[in-house]
Design goal:
It contains 4 helices and 18 strands. Strands 8, 11, 12, 13, 14 and 15 form a 6-stranded antiparallel β-sheet that branches. A hairpin with a 4-residue loop joins β12 (180-184) and β13 (189-199). Helix content is 15%, strand content 43%. The protein has one domain. It is an alpha+beta fold. The protein has helices at residues 3-16, 28-40, 145-156, 254-257; strands at 42-46, 61-63, 72-82, 85-95, 100-107, 113-117, 120-123, 130-134, 159-165, 168-171, 173-174, 180-184, 189-199, 202-212, 221-228, 233-238, 241-246, 262-269.
C-alpha cells in the first residue's frame, strides 16, 4: 500500500469518526421540546379570571404538510381545558424552507377569553366559530362509550370541507380517530370528541361533537361546533349542504383579527439544538 493511499484511508477513517453536523431540520424530539416550550409561554384565561386554564402538557396531534411549497415540516397542536372540556387550541408549525415558526389559536368557547404572553394580551376572542348547532337526523346517544364513539365517527363522515390555497381548491380529509375524547357532568355533556379535518394530517378545521343537554333533567342530544385552524378561505358542508363559509384570515381587517375566534402569527425561526442528534 502506497503512502499516499494509506494517508487517504486514515483521513477517511478520521472523518467517519467526527460527530455529524445537525440537520437543518433538527431531530423530531428536539422539535417537540421546542414546540412544548413555546406553548408553555402562553396562558389562557376566562375574561376577568385570575387563574389561567390548564394546558395539556402533551400535544393531541403531531402533524406535517408536505403538499405545499411552504408546507409544514413539523407541527404540534395543544389544548386548553376547563375541567375535561376543550376550550381552545394552540398549534405551532415549523414551515419549509427556512424553519419559520407560526402559531395559530382557535376558540371553542361561546364566551370571551384572553390569551397572554409575558403578561401582555395577544389574543382576546369574544366567541368561537360556529358553535353548538343541533346535529340534524342524529339518533339518540348510545348507551355505551364504545357505541357513542361509533356514532361520532359516523357523524364526522357526514361533514366535508374545502380550503382554497391561491387558485387551488383542496378537499379536506376527516381523520377517522378523534384527537381528544371527554365528558363533563357539570356542563351536562355525556360524551364529546374533537375531530380534525386535514390536508395531509395538518388540521385546517376542527369539528367538535357533543352529546349534551341544556339541563341535568333533559336527555342529551347531539350537537356540533366548527373552528378554523387555517388562514385560508374555507367552506364546510353537512350532508352536502353548506353550513359555514369563512373568508381568508388576511382579508379580515387587522383591527378585528385579535378579537376573532382564530389568529395566526409569526413566531421567529426554529434552530435545531446543537445537543440533538441529527435527524434520520
Amino acid at each position: 500500500m502506497s503512502a499516499t493511499f494509506g494517508s487517504l484511508v486514515l483521513l477517511l477513517v478520521a472523518m467517519a469518526q467526527l460527530p455529524a453536523e445537525p440537520s437543518a431540520e433538527g431531530d423530531p424530539k428536539d422539535r417537540l421540546r421546542f414546540m412544548k416550550a413555546k406553548a408553555a409561554e402562553f396562558a389562557l384565561y376566562r375574561e376577568m379570571a385570575k387563574e389561567p386554564l390548564p394546558l395539556k402538557d402533551e400535544p393531541v396531534l403531531r402533524f406535517s404538510n408536505p403538499e405545499r411549497d411552504s408546507g409544514t415540516l413539523d407541527g404540534a397542536t395543544f389544548l386548553w381545558l376547563e375541567r375535561a372540556k376543550p376550550v381552545a387550541a394552540i398549534s405551532f408549525g415549523i414551515r419549509r424552507p427556512k424553519n419559520a415558526v407560526f402559531r395559530e389559536h382557535a376558540s371553542f368557547s361561546s364566551t370571551p377569553l384572553v390569551c397572554r404572553k409575558a403578561g401582555v394580551d395577544i389574543w382576546s376572542p369574544q366567541t368561537g366559530g360556529l358553535l353548538n348547532r343541533p346535529l340534524a337526523d342524529a339518533p339518540p346517544p348510545a348507551d355505551s362509550p364504545a357505541g357513542r364513539l361509533t356514532q361520532m365517527r359516523t357523524f364526522a363522515r357526514r361533514f366535508s370541507a374545502t380550503c382554497y390555497y391561491k387558485e387551488d381548491a383542496t378537499q379536506l380529509r376527516v381523520l377517522p380517530q378523534p384527537l381528544y375524547r371527554f365528558d363533563d357532568k357539570q356542563e351536562n355533556i355525556l360524551d364529546g370528541a374533537l375531530f380534525a379535518m386535514v390536508v395531509s394530517n395538518d388540521p385546517e378545521m376542527f369539528l367538535l361533537l357533543e352529546a349534551a343537554a341544556d339541563n341535568a333533567s333533559d336527555k342529551p342530544q347531539w350537537r356540533y361546533s366548527l373552528a378554523r385552524m387555517s388562514s385560508l378561505r374555507h367552506t364546510v358542508r353537512l350532508d352536502g349542504t353548506e353550513v359555514w363559509s369563512i373568508p381568508g384570515y388576511y382579508t379580515i381587517p387587522a383591527a378585528e383579527r385579535k378579537s376573532g375566534p382564530y389568529v395566526e402569527a409569526f413566531q421567529g425561526t426554529y434552530a435545531p439544538s446543537s445537543e440533538s442528534p441529527p435527524a434520520k
